[in-house]
Amino acid sequence: MTADPLVYIIIVNYGRASDTIECLVSLGALTGPAFRVVLVDNGSPSDSAREIADFLGCAADRRSGWKQVSHGCGYSLRFIPSPENLGFAGGCNIGMREALADPAATHVWLLNNDTLVEPDSLAALLRRCQPAVHRTEVPVSMCGSTLIYYKPKDVLQGCGGRFDISRGRGRPIAALNPREHLPEQAEVERDMDYVIGASMLVSIDLIRQVGLMDERYFLYFEELDWALRARAQGFRLGWAPDSWVVHKEGAAIGTSMRARPSAMATYFMTAGYLRLVWALRRRTLPAALAISAMRAANFMLQRDLELAGAVFQAITAFVRSPTAYVPGSFRGVGTAHQGKI
Questions:
Q1: Are the C-beta atoms of 128 and 251 separated by less than 8 Å?
Q2: Domain boundaries, the chain
Q3: pLDDT at residue 251 is higher than 70
Q4: What is the pTM for the complete model shown?
Q5: Taking the C-alpha atoms of 200, 201, 207 and 211 in order, what is their torsion angle to the nearest 10 degrees?
Q6: 3-state DSSP assignment of residue 328
Q7: In this entry, which stretches build a coiled coil (predicted)?
Q8: What is the pLDDT of residue 281?
Q9: What is the pLDDT of residues 304-325, one digit of tens each?
Q10: Three-class SS string for 166-197?
Q11: Residues 11, 20: contact at Cβ < 8 Å?
């Protein structure tokens, strides 16, 4: 890492201006390295973009120049409205292209708009990405934070993620642990398959070599796909235990671990899983399709026809176009809908 890192913080808004503004205010308390913020409005169908633009003092319908945000330490921000919803990966990629165009940029920090950062969270991520003491050890190029719930704030959401691609099941590491009971860093980094996308620091070198996020996922599995591609090219994942980030956790589309998922979340989870298997483990695709069909059958046994229908719609959309499914295939959800953020 260079002596003077410059981090581009990428935030994507979709219809939740109050969360985004609260996140922006929290960035003013950050200590440590220099950073810039790129805020992308992902084709919000409401007045969300205008509300944010009013807060920033810029136009809601066109890209702004670099504006100075006066909260706390003060920082530079560029607001970019997208005319359409490009999905989570597409929105993040808009911001990452801004970073790639700046020769001084060293890292990007992908940060969900429904997060609140603690003052040392960014500095802690960068410390974990410092070159290893031993020359033979590969430095960390993709690093995650310790995520805690917004309510209650003393409970962990996760420190990284594990995923069993053959069974289609993933889980965050140390989820629901008390805040004071953190696992060992070496244990987490040994077990993790991906960095949770709500707070992910990535080196510019990794992005240039591995590429941007795959926008064909639209929603879910894009960070897992990205991490697996990065590891296949020799990059290392890491976790910064002392980088604390509060996450309100996908309330917009019902992705809470403790609640019934929404139909939209279920659709995109199923479609993303099938796309991942097609891309990375194609020989197991028949099993993945069977697993998805069994989930639909289980929802039917629970008399939850809405979620069963969402799974079947995802399977149908994938079979019709396995290389590039269309988000609008989910009835009632057009391309203007998104909810991860």
A1: no
A2: 6-247, 263-329
A3: no
A4: 0.89
A5: 0
A6: helix
A7: none
A8: 87
A9: 999 999 999 999 999 988 876 4
A10: CCCEEEECCCCCECCCCCCHHHHHHHCCECCC
A11: yes
